[in-house]
Design a protein that fits this description.
Elements: E1 9-11, E2 14-18, H1 24-33, H2 35-39, H3 60-72, E3 77-83, E4 86-97, E5 103-110, H4 119-135, E6 139-144, H5 149-158, E7 161-172, E8 175-185, H6 193-204
Parallel strand pairs: 5-6
Antiparallel strand pairs: 1-2, 2-3, 3-4, 4-5, 6-8, 7-8
């Protein structure tokens, strides 16, 4: 496997670790409970030539084999998100590009039952620090549908820079959807993303 994989990342009750085949029961249970909440943001395949060979939706094990294969090739870091040892979501660093670009993108989802507790901002901060400090990447990008307020709150809390709109950027939930682009470069967070998040989150706590 590549130098950045496998790796486990921890901060308090939040952890990221590689997705694995034996996560199937927990992953499917969380996905099932959150199906209606997550469906609006799921990637789909457009009709036409792009759909040729796409076949039916992959099984969980097929998905894991693909993700881990991409990780072995150095193109992806597929994590599950754990909270107090329980699987509550997924975070994937994808599109890893080297050469003159040295960039990647981050996508994520979380169980609605634990949303709003700072779990996903912590998970994103962990992944960004690993990408910048562990892998030596220069830029991280997150693309979010304008309507996806919970996901937007994550990057806004962490201080990602808004770069505007990409019209009809990805095929999501059955149609081409506009996406807002948020990004950071390593030199914008010299203190580290996790340290930034610790400072920001502590300043939001009510004082007695």
């Amino acid at each position: 496997m590549n130098a950045g994989w496998p790796v486990e990342l921890h901060e308090g009750d939040v952890a990221l670790r590689p997705i694995r085949a034996r996560d199937q029961r927990d992953w499917q249970e969380v996905s099932r409970r959150n199906r209606d909440w997550l469906r609006r943001w799921e990637a789909t395949v457009p009709p036409g030539p792009a759909a040729h060979g796409a076949g039916s939706r992959p099984t969980y094990r097929q998905m894991v084999r693909y993700l881990r294969g991409e990780a072995s090739a150095g193109r992806m870091l597929p994590f599950v998100v754990l909270y107090k040892g329980r699987l509550v979501g997924q975070l994937t660093v994808g599109g890893i590009t080297w050469g003159s670009m040295c960039s990647a993108n981050v996508g994520y989802w979380i169980d609605e039952a634990v949303a709003g507790r700072g779990i996903m901002p912590t998970a994103v901060a962990l992944s960004v620090d690993h990408c910048f400090r562990g892998l030596g990447l220069h830029r991280i990008e997150v693309c979010i549908r304008p309507e996806n307020t919970p996901s937007r709150r994550v990057v806004e809390k962490l201080g990602f820079r808004s770069e505007g709109m990409r019209p009809r950027y990805l095929h999501i939930d059955g149609d081409w959807r506009d996406h807002l682009v948020f990004a950071l470069t390593a030199d914008e967070v010299p203190e580290g993303m996790l340290d930034r998040w610790r400072t920001l989150s502590s300043s939001r706590r009510p004082r007695n």
